[in-house]
Design brief:
Bound molecules: zinc ion
Order of helices and strands: HEEHEEE
Strand content: 25-35%
Oligomer: single chain
Strand order of the largest sheet: 3-4-5
Structural class: alpha+beta
Largest sheet: 3 strands, antiparallel
Radius of gyration: 24 Å
Length: 110
């Protein structure tokens, strides 16, 4: 797990909500209880999206037919972002998908 995931999980594990209608006579400061799961998950998922995008994903490989040389059909390998399925280019040094921003892991392909 990376440090961003750890920090988000830590904050979610400790997320508390302030109880506004506590008894002023009985307590000299406010009271808190754990944040309800729905509110927590709604807000966590927004930040989880950023963390997931920063975690490198291997692109999907597929073959295609192109006509490069003298119009002769040639089989070529193309790569698609595993997140948005747009074409990404290992030889241009794409570290991120230029369509959706997903970090790319080329370690198996180069
Ligand atoms: Zn993408």
């Amino acid at each position: 797990m990376n440090k961003y995931q750890e920090a988000l999980d830590f904050l979610c594990d400790h997320a508390m909500e302030y109880i506004e209608d506590f008894d002023w006579e009985e307590y000299d400061c406010g009271d808190y209880y754990p944040l309800d799961k729905e509110t927590l998950n709604t807000n966590k998922s927004v930040l989880q999206e950023l963390i997931d995008r920063a975690m490198p994903m291997e692109p999907n490989e597929e073959t295609a037919t192109a006509e490069f040389i003298n119009d002769y059909p040639t089989t070529v390998m193309i790569y698609r972002c595993a997140k948005c399925c747009e074409i990404v280019h290992p030889f241009d040094g794409d570290l991120y998908c230029r369509h959706c921003g997903q970090a790319l892991d080329w370690s198996d392909d180069q």
